[in-house]
Amino acid sequence: MPSAVPDITTTGADDIRATVTDEPATNGVGKRLNGRSTWHNIGSHERHKSGSSVNSDDTFDHRSVHEACADVPLTEHEPPYGYHEEQAGGPRSRAYANIRSWGDDQKTTKFPRIGKPVELMRHSYECVVIGSGYGGGVAASRMARAGKSVCLLERGKERWPGEYPSKTHDALEQVHYSGEFAPGWAPKKIVGGGDPTGMYHLIFGNGQNAVVCNGLGGTSLMNANVYLEADEETLQMEAWPQEIRDHPGCLDDYYKRASDVLEPQPYPEDWPKLPKLDLLERQAKYMNMGDNFRRVKQTTRFHNGPNSCGVEMSPSALTGQDATGLNDGSKNTTLVTYLADAWNWGADMFCESEVRYITKAPEGRTGYIVYFAWHGRNRGHFKANLHGDLMWVHAREAVFLGAGAVGTTEILLRSKDMGLDMSEKVGQNMSGNGDIWGFGYNTDYEVNAMGRSFPSPYHPVGPCITGIIDNRAGHKNPLDGYVIEEGTVPGVIAPFLQAMLEIMPGSIEPTGEGLLGRVQANLSRIGSAFLGPYFRKGAIEKTQVYLIMSHDSNQAYLTLKDDKPVLEFIGVGRSDHVKYLNGILAKATRAVGGTFIQNPFYALMGEQQVTVHPIGGACMACDGTGSTGVTNHRGEVFTGSGDETHPGLIVTDAAVIPAALGANPFATITALAERSVDLYTKEMGYEINMEKNETLDLFGSPQRQRHGGKCKGEEYVEQTQESAGIASANEAIASARRLNDSGFGFTEVMSGFIHRDRGLKRDNPDTYKLAARTAESLSETARFFLSVQSFNIRSVIHDPNHKAMLTGTFVCPTLAGSPFMVQRGDFNLFLLDRKAPGTRNLTYDFDMRGINGKKLHFHGYKVVDSSVALSPIHFWKSTSTLYVTITEPIPDSKRKLPDADECGLLGEIVAKGILRIQPQDFLSEVMTLTPTGSNVFKKVMSVGNFMTFFTRKSMSLLLAPFTPLQYPSQTYSGFVNNTLATKSYKITASDGVVTTLHMWEPTNRDIEPKNLFMVPGASVDHQIFALPTIRYNAVNYFRRAGYRVFVTVHRIGMLMVAQNNWTTFDARLDFKACLQKIREDFPGSDGEPEATYTIAHCMGSVALSSGLLDGTIPAKWIKGLTCSQVFMNPIWNTMNMLKISKLPIPGDWLYKILLGNWFSFSTGKNDSYVQLFLNELLRLMPDERKELCNNASCHRTTLALGRCWNHHNLNEATHRQIDRFFGGVNMTLMHLLMKQGYEGHVMANAPLYERLDEPDNVRRLKGIPILLFVGRDNAVLSLESTERTYEILTDTFGTGDDVSGMQYRRRVVPDYGHLDCWMGRNAWKDVYPFVREEMDRVVRGEEYHFKEPEDKFKMLVDSGKLLY
Questions:
Q1: Backbone φ/ψ region at 678: left (φ over 0), alpha (ψ -120 to 50), beta
Q2: In terms of Cα–Cα distance, which of 451, 177, 480 is closest to 325?
Q3: Neighbours of 761 (CB within 10 A)
Q4: Are strands 743-756 and 930-932 parallel, antiparallel or unpaired?
Q5: pLDDT, tens only, 757-770
Q6: Cis peptide before 964, with omega less than 30 degrees from 0?
Q7: How confident is the model at residue 52, as a pLDDT?
Q8: Distance from C-alpha of 125 to C-alpha of 1270, rounded to nearest angstrom
Q9: pTM of the prediction?
Q10: Which of 528, 600, 649, 947 could form a disulfide with 538 if both were Cys (CB 3.0 to 4.6 A apart)?
Q11: Using the 8-state DSSP alphabet, how is residue 294 labeled?
């Protein structure tokens, strides 16, 4: 069996033949054991090439031996030995019977894994093989050797010797039953239960039942290994195709190929005697059939060494456990032969993949689409989705069906229902191969037929079947032929066998027994009952097991009821043929003094039969047309009743056999499969490479790596991308295995509505909700069924991306190509959302491929933000609502860009919508939570680590108000747009105060430059307009519109002089000095000073109004004015009003008394205790849940000014470093601000606080076009602030003398607050444009239309890197 590559270098040799010699030998050469040479034979096909492990220092000349011995013939049944081969050398110890580990350390059980995780599947292969039994194994091996890309899909799991159940409870967990339970004495009922990927599959039927095996290796894992070729008389029957019945010898070469791979041999004469074999021979003689008895060939190994395919094997431990899987490593199943060979030649094999049906590929693609249900990752808990949301793989050239007679027929029936044209004969002419099963209970002889995991080496059970009474020849009618074989009962059943046999009706007792005989029989029964089934004198140890293969009428048929396969063969068990053969078994039993008992199905279910060899259902036609069969003689499926076939759709298993064989069928199945594949490859011009494998290291890599076919252009790019993705995923999986890491996974179903509309560009909840409502009205449903798997739990927890892998399907009929396959997608758990502060996203990002071959990109995210705080209901809604965007695919190099807001949303929009988790699906999702790890401890640790991480992240959001405060950082982060001024000036006002004026030259040289003066509010500086943490700020925007931008940092802003009790009224002097500087240094095109368009925000706007109203700033200096949030009528919003009117002591006075004249918006962990206490108190400030945060500087800003933004409009970098953009406020200014906002008008300084918005002062504003705008959600100032100003202006000046007839305009900006109108990440789209339009209208005229320059900002917008 497979072994790790040893550290010791082995010695290569040329072809050596065994020789019989009596001469003395050197170093053991020529030494004989039991009449056989112990020399290893290495054929020319196994000679080491350069790079192989060859010991050049070997002093023995192998070629001389070869030359000397080349002509010595081998005796029959003595195959030449190869590497590592040796005989058993005598009875083996009990421990040898169970190969528990392939490594040196028995504590770390490791087994080979030649199957791949479905995560590593490609979307398309040249060949797809369904099933992994003899037919599937042959197809996979031969097509891989032909250089084709091969994908094999197997319903069951991959298990190797040492992993098969040996305990009853383990075996019961592997039982799966389905079909129609029809016992005859009760109503029929469709049943199903157990693990659908379980190893033992019991198929109930009406009259005929079947037992088959699921697993990588198919039924070869649990058959009795008997290699018996069909007799010529059977192959010449009318049911067979003419190409075979007229030339039955056409299968000889293919039997030879099968034999060369499977290496059958009879039970050796010199091995321990087997009581059950001796008893069968005795029974044959009693019935005058002694000449027909012989030891039958079987695929059990009786010596060490690599098998024909290079897999290391062990000699049989004679356990008799064949029917539940041999753990001794001696059985040449397809797993260790054809499948291991296919793996070595580059085939990809995927387990837990139940193929449901096949369709032709859509127009424009060749081949077929194979749909399958993936049972991995506990997906079976979603019962409604498992068989509804199917995965698929594209077969470009051929599909080989090798799922067994029942499985293949079921697939074809369902494919036919799904529109694939084929013969009406599908499902008909099935057979149980004439199988009859019975027991010779409590005979007079010891039988020892009860299997056990560790038999005594001196009292072995033996292989399941070793002998045969072959009664096929000599009949006028070949249908009268049959074979009788002895068998064993696996150990998992042995404890219950006596009870079952004792109560079974219809038993035939021995006749003519005397009193002594009856006493002995009863004592034997009592012995087994009390001492167990292995009591050597007991009735069970004296029970012979029979298996007959014969011929039946081939009238069974398979249909689908409720989409489930139902096998029917009414009356088969009541036929005269069955009664005749039961009579022979009764006679054989009576001859040895036993009681004949029929199988439980016959006895308990109304004379029904059970078979382990179902055949037919997709039979080869006898006349070459679909009117008599489903396939032609090559196994190709007919398109109807004529002779036309589906090219490359080939059945290679027992389903093609048109009649019962009267023998164990797997030799014939294998030969027919070899023939079908051979004929197909010859037709296609392919050559199967028959070079022998070297010894395989199944823990390493295949010796033959398949290289991709030639392709060009886009196909080459896609193949390269897919290969890179597979390599990356494979490395992650291999690394986790290598480092013995534990992992975690779950499966999720989300459903909803997605609307196809390329105009849905905005990335906000309202857009998604609109799309979902529209989709629902149009019934545009969507659903995904995805498995999330982390192979390394540490990466999920500690990697900032918290990433896992996605695999599954996405269904959306409104999108061409649905259903889509999702492979190697990215899932991010609680990923920090850099677009919004305090927000964590659960993101789903993947390319998906439709059955039409086209790709789309899926990006979805669940938003978990402060709105979930203290609200489990909101938390559930957030974590169960996915905002989905479907885009056209773009190359990975373009999608992974560092300057994109969200890489997953790049590309042209195709559709948007919302998916949600339904409560019932969530319960199923919880059931799929599964840890992975090498042992129970690691699995427990994996669960603990994941749940700790999930709980910690969830609680940090649910309990956000109580989490540790976020204090200013010492490092800069997220500064993506450092907008440096072209020049900065020191400005001295008339009162001697020095401030700063920054200037940026325009970047658009195609437009005549115009001056723009921008005034920030109190406590801030120029950075609110030149914000470095957003990619596209206001200065960028207006510069590219052709404006020379000036921004003042005035005395109530972020300057040291701000602490000197300056007010808004004082700041008007700074503005006058700045405007004077602009007019002098940057005159108009005529050289004369010109009026300057001005934009003023908040208290900067209030200060500007002071200067205009009192005449300090001449109105003629202002070309036009945009006032952000307020102008001359500041009115506080509700919360700020409450701070002023409801506190017993004004807040500014109280603060001044306790902490001084200066309130800083910044703070730190090392601040004074009073300030730290204040910081903690500020947590309790009331606000909407969605606006909660734990940023200490944000809280302090809110205390002094009110909440200055809707949090979701800021990105994480801006909010995290808000302290860098705010200074503080002196209490004198604060008192004036409070008084102005309370009374609703602009004022001069104390002590008079003169009102400045008197009518005479207002008339100074005449001729200045003014745009007023305010955020709808402004929590600092009331919307009434701008509304009152607008009313005063229109009442005073009417519509004015503006050319457009509208001198004054007012605008409310939805979904914005206060300062986010300038600092918001989407302000470039929502605010700046209407400000620029008004400015262009005033400065450049009504006819002017702005044209976007081709620059980096336009590229950012057009490429989708800037979300909005």
A1: alpha
A2: 451
A3: 15
A4: antiparallel
A5: 988 888 888 899 99
A6: no
A7: 37
A8: 60
A9: 0.85
A10: 528
A11: E
